[in-house]
């Protein structure tokens, strides 16, 4: 199991270091697959990492200089692909880890991409619309030389949305002197976005929950679901689970959680949430995020940020299945504890791959200039996610490893093979 090898890291600080954790699992996956150490040397860090300074004129007339990153993990399989996050806690290390996770996701759902990721240290909750536009355009100007429809294709991530993608696409098209919809995905429909992209991550998570529930003999109808995070993934997921007949008994945002053992009124909460997924501020009797994670339920979905289930609270998790809609919400120690307790954990690199899958569909539609219906997108997403879930599940059974390690083994293979054929290793 993953955590045996994790003893390599005895420094307590490393335990929440998402880059170190992902490197640990990659190394183990490569060993299990019989690859040499050089392959790990190549894959443990992104091939390229660009740090940029973005001067932005704020509404008060002053200039503020923001720091941004773009990491390109590995482009042996194809152009790199992955979102851009706007968040005050963005770090270089985190962006690197996120780019590696994107490579794994693309490998797991078998897309012709490697992984990339971007981030800007900023708090969009405190910025005006115009400031955000200037920042988005400034970022694209700063990274324009290393991105492009056949090089590296960005997309939305935490606190970025289709409007931000639209500004970025427009800025890139001006630089490129061509209309370049395939430069970025997650765009509004009228600018070449795809049907189903906005709900894609949550749809993918829903499919994984359904498949995992079948394996565990849990009936979705009436199942008690807790969702941490009410952003793009969490809010749509709560809605889909509610519509499927499950009882969503807990949800949360960055400020706290809501709990009702009889089921929350999800449509009302969706209606009242702001564009950053905040809703709990409207209520008095909230619970903490810590309490929310420990609620008695059948299905727990961390859909917020990293390092939420750790060795401190893993023993208190009372769910049959944990499905990671966020990137990196469970530490390796916690993965081990949950697995030993018989809880089925569906890892982020599999469960949250619906977003990039429909981003790929969007890019394909942009490239061919011919657009698909919502039904076509959904049917293709369903087929890919069901096959990917079962592929990883079976790998876990045959190799007798947990689903995180199995997912890494599936995800890393194509990248390692492509790098070998290219003569890189
Ligand atoms: N940001 C999303 C993720 O972490 C989607 C990336 C994409 O669509 O390229 O998977």
From TrEMBL:
Organism in which the protein naturally occurs: Rossellomorea vietnamensis
Record's keyword terms, sorted: NAD, Nucleotide-binding, Oxidoreductase
Family, per entry: Belongs to the Glu/Leu/Phe/Val dehydrogenases family.
Matching SMART domains: ELFV_dehydrog (SM00839)
Binding site for substrate: 81, 105, 359
Gene3D superfamilies named in the record: Leucine Dehydrogenase, chain A, domain 1, NAD(P)-binding Rossmann-like Domain
Protein name according to UniProt: Glutamate dehydrogenase
PANTHER family: GLUTAMATE DEHYDROGENASE, GLUTAMATE DEHYDROGENASE 1, MITOCHONDRIAL
Domain Glutamate/phenylalanine/leucine/valine/L-tryptophan dehydrogenase C-terminal: from-to ranges: 194-423
């Amino acid at each position: 199991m993953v955590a045996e090898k994790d003893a390599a890291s005895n420094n307590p600080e490393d335990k929440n270091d998402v880059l170190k954790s992902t490197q640990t699992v990659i190394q183990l996956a490569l060993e299990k697959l019989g690859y040499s150490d050089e392959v790990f040397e190549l894959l443990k860090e992104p091939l390229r990492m660009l740090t940029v300074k973005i001067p932005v004129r704020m509404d008060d007339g002053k200039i503020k200089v923001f720091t941004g990153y773009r990491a390109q993990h590995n482009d042996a399989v194809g152009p790199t692909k992955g979102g851009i996050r706007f968040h005050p806690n963005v770090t270089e290390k985190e962006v690197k880890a996120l780019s590696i996770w994107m490579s794994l996701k693309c490998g797991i759902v078998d897309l012709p991409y490697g992984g990339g990721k971007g981030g800007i240290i900023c708090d969009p909750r405190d910025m005006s619309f115009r400031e955000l536009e200037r920042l988005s355009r400034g970022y694209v100007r700063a990274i324009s030389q290393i991105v492009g429809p056949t090089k590296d294709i960005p997309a939305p991530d935490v606190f970025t949305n289709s409007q931000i993608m639209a500004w970025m696409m427009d800025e890139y098209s001006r630089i490129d002197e061509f209309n370049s919809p395939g430069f970025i995905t997650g765009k509004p429909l009228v600018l070449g976005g795809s049907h189903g992209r906005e709900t894609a991550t949550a749809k993918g998570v829903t499919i994984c929950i359904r498949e995992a529930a079948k394996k565990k003999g849990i009936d979705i109808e009436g199942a008690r679901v807790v969702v941490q995070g009410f952003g793009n993934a969490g809010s749509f997921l709560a809605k889909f689970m509610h519509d499927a007949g499950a009882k969503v008994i807990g949800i949360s945002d960055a400020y706290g959680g809501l709990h009702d053992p009889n089921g929350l009124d999800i449509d009302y909460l969706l209606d009242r949430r702001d564009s950053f997924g905040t809703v709990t501020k409207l209520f008095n009797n909230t619970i903490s995020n810590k309490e929310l994670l420990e609620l008695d339920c059948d299905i727990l979905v961390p859909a917020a940020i990293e390092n939420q289930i750790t060795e401190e609270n893993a023993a208190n998790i009372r769910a049959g299945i944990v499905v990671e809609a966020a990137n990196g919400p469970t530490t390796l120690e916690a993965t081990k504890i949950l697995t030993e307790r018989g809880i089925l954990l569906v890892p982020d690199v599999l469960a949250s791959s619906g977003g990039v899958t429909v981003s790929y569909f969007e890019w394909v539609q942009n490239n061919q200039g011919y657009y698909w219906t919502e039904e076509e997108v959904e049917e293709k997403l369903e087929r890919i996610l069901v096959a990917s879930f079962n592929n990883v599940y079976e790998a876990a059974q045959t190799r007798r490893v947990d689903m995180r390690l199995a997912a890494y083994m599936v995800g890393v293979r194509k990248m390692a093979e492509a790098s070998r054929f290219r003569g890189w290793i």
